[in-house]
Prior knowledge:
Number of strands: 9
Shape: globular
Distance between the termini: 14 Å
Amino acid sequence: MPPDATSKSDLRLYDFLPYDQRPPIRWPGDARVAFFVAPNIEVYELDPPHNAEYAGWARPLPDVLYYARRDYGNRAGMKRMIAVMDKYHVRGSVSLNVAVCDHYPEIIEACNSRQWEFFSHGIYNTRYLYGLDDDQQRSIIRDSQQTIMRQSGQRLDGWLSPSITPTERTPHLLAEMGLLYTCDYFHDDQPLPLNVQGGRLISMPYSFELNDYIAFISRGMSPAAFLDVVKRQFDQLYEEGADSGTVMSIPLHPYLIGQPNRIGALDAALAYVTGHEKVWVTTAREIANHYYAHHYDEAVAAMAER
């Protein structure tokens, strides 16, 4: 049943189905964990347009310091991150501000040559969805679809709202426009069907805990502490995945993980994860396609029965 837009007591976007009462998920090769890395390749505006509902940057504009610090990732950090991911044969599932295609075409070319997936993180990371109507959001989604197809030949299958600013309408519009998954919700360690109007959409596990922004900026972790958290996360999901396949994602930002003092933590983390058997090292799109083909209908039926 589609959610009632007038109700504010419950998101009603997804149903409750206890973790241990779901139909089991089986990944290719009987893998326990489907693993993907999500580099957030972003571009910010020095003096972004005003959004009445979300201030975004705390400092007065134009904020040269904040802009330049982010730009470090595209100029220096990106090269280091790519080198480490290449070392362990990990393709990126890129959370892309599509304006990067115009500002940094070299980065798009580098990702294309490695067969990385592009999903949309909006146009600029300084243009939020809060306060936008349906047609304005459709325009952003359509721009993302057209730009990614033009620059990479890829269909747009996934979404992460810029600066995580989805509205109540965003998932319904994504489904309407044919996308497969969204990373905007942090509510589970397995893909789950969402209650959307006019199509199908699943939530893709996108880890708040392993996001390097949360780790290094919000929580002040050292690189060693970040590596320890990655290992602990993997160990638990790997154990649980023996019964039903789980998903582990590591969301990254080149301006953070690509710093010289942190890149070694990513190297060690990928060595640890890929050093285990029964790990499907893949992309978010491939996880979504497998889930739709083998588990989506069963999960919907189980939720309806409950």
